[in-house]
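Open question from group meeting: does this chain pack into something compact, or does most of it stay loose? Before anyone orders reagents, we agreed to write out a predicted structure and look at it together. Recording both the input and the output here so the notebook holds the full record.
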Amino acid sequence: MTKVFVTAGVLLLVAIIIMSFRGGRHQRSGGHSAVDMVKHMERKLDLTEVQKTTILSSLKELEITRNKMNLLHEELEQKMMQQLSNTFFDQEELNRYFESKEREYSTARQQMIANMVAIHTVLTPQQRQKMNKLMASRRAKHTARR
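Structure tokens returned:
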């Protein structure tokens, strides 16, 4: 019986930790649109039309993939909470469920990386450096608000 409570406690803690790292203020409110991000990048990085088109397409695909991953996360969280409310915590069932979702996570991760490669490839080295600095500055501002 103690083992069940310890396992349930650990899973609840994992769920809470995962939820706390699920994006900042903009992510929870729907985030910035891909169009808005490209407009901002165009101003800051002096993008060509080809670059704007490629980046916009990649950002839209990233948004779709990120939404899929968020849905997977929510499904897993619901499954864990369901197990916590049961009289018997079925570790094997939960492990099988997680394993079935790992393939979907892997596919989504690969799609995200492919889109980041497309963005990286279309930018010049100078634009990549400037974008890196802009992103670091943005991350620092968001971290300071928390």
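Observations to bring back to the group:
The longest helix spans residues 49-85.
The helical segments are 2-20, 25-28, 34-45, 49-85, 91-122, 125-145.
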